[in-house]
Design a protein that fits this description.
Largest sheet: 5 strands, antiparallel
Structural class: alpha+beta
Distance between the termini: 10 Å
Radius of gyration: 14 Å
Strand content: 15-25%
Number of helices: 6
Number of strands: 5
Number of domains: 1
Length: 152
């Protein structure tokens, strides 16, 4: 679980560092309103790093929807802090009462190609802008600022 958490911190830092003007509108106010597309991209990132396949979960609470990754009881969420009652920028844990209130349901694999074109191309371009060359990443350095805000 620690490796998944470190990867989630790294991906969040990469999203925050990406030039907003090059991202789809859905990601320009990250994390606000960005959970759907971010969850798909994070799913791809974790899969490419060898952490296995995650599922895209979607739930509703008080008229607002929220999406996160899940594999069995393991929840990975890097956009929950868009809500006033959640402070952690990265959440990785087995189960969560907070997520439980959303009554999330498994929608599909966390794969940005699931919706077809033109969404696939838009998310592929965003992923390239966010991640760049994975071989150039140094996770410890990239997520340093986020690690100070919450413990790994």
């Amino acid at each position: 679980m620690d490796d998944v958490k470190k990867a989630a911190f790294t991906f969040r830092a990469l999203v925050e560092a990406a030039p907003k003007e090059g991202l789809p509108i859905s990601l320009q106010n990250f994390p606000n309103g960005a959970c759907g597309d971010t969850t798909l991209l994070l799913g791809r990132y974790l899969t490419e790093l060898g952490h296995g396949e995650f599922r895209y979960y979607l739930g509703r609470r008080d008229g607002r929807s929220h999406a996160w990754l899940q594999r069995g009881p393991l929840i990975v969420d890097i956009t929950a802090d868009q809500f006033d009652d959640f402070d952690d920028p990265v959440f990785v844990a087995d189960g969560s009462p907070w997520h439980g209130v959303f009554a999330g349901e498994d929608q599909h694999a966390a794969d940005p190609t699931v919706f077809g074109e033109p969404i696939t191309s838009s998310l592929a371009a965003a992923y390239t802008l966010i991640v760049g060359n994975p071989q150039d990443q140094h996770p410890h350095t990239i997520c340093q600022s986020l690690a100070k805000r919450t413990s790994l």
